[in-house]
Amino acid sequence: MLVDDVDIVIKAGHGGTGRVSFHNKKGAGPDGGNGGKGGDVFVEVTSDLYGLNRYVSKKVLVAQNGEAGGKKDKSGADAGDLTLIMPVGTFIIDGEDNEIELNEIGKKVLIAKGGLGGKGNAFFKSSRNTTPRYAQPGLRGEERKLNLKLKLIADFGLIGLPNAGKSSILNELTSASAKIGDYPFTTLEPNLGMLNGKVIADIPGLIEGASEGKGLGHKFLKHIEKVKLLLHCISSESDNPISDYTIIHKELKEYSSILLEKQEIILLTKSDLIKDNDLKKKLKSLAKTKKQIISVSIHDWESLQLLIKILG
Fold first, then answer.
1. How far is 233 from 203, CA to CA, in rounded Å?
2. What sections of the chain are H helices per DSSP?
3. Hey, what domains does the chain have and what are their CATH numbers?
4. Whether the Cβ atoms of residue 292 and residue 300 lie closer than 8 Å to each other
5. CA dihedral angle for residue 283, residue 286, residue 292, residue 294, rounded to 10 degrees
6. For an engineered disulfide with 215, which of 12, 62, 207, 273 has Cβ 3.0 to 4.6 Å away?
7. What is the pLDDT of residues 125-155, one digit of tens each?
8. Would the pTM of this model clear 0.85, i.e. be above it?
């Protein structure tokens, strides 16, 4: 299962406590060391799109605390940092609506600072105070409540009503093995495949009212936001292809008008299942969309090669 929305709490480490200590030799003065720094929390960006799954069972993530100061002016050790792995395309949102987009694989981002260690009593020794009997506690590390949202970053996105042939097309164009079936909502989460080094995402079928939360569409509409080119699949078996097209476009507009600005190609799928005359009529009806239209079938090698050539 692809987890694309999860809440976590992160806690950077606290600074170690400064030490109150004195040399054994009489009159030698204080020798309490400083506390070590608490661990920072970083996020490292990965290509593993299932990276958020690890935070379903463990939602509170805590860095180590710095060690306390020791005797003989010995400072406590700094704590090691905590690095969280998150997939490219993740948005980190805090309670104040601050937002960080993770858009570069391998990049490392600091999201919570560890607390500084407290000073030991040796630090406070002076001519006026030769025997300070106090030290500082370490400072607390930062704590943040975060919402993590994943939006797939793909070159091509297959969209359309349920059972429009999206998964079949993905399987034929790539080495993906998306589940297919002759019933709605076979695809319950986005599937990904690679074509000539470019990512194709099969977005679960949208239905009328998806932008209002009906069906599965509302959960996955966000993944279309990052897609560069929409491949709008419409089944040639549909009684009214232009109506199917209009339904999807209405939902895209209701969710975000920005989606309508994306480049789009219409794929009239399953073209082998209807007669040539009927296919021509349906291609003609879709011409009013003023989009590029390709009839394609997983059983028609030439149509698939044409699509591959167009996608580059």
1. 11
2. 166-173, 217-220, 241-255, 276-286, 301-311
3. 5-150 (2.70.210.12), 156-311 (3.40.50.300)
4. no
5. -30
6. 207
7. 999 999 999 999 999 999 999 999 998 778 8
8. no
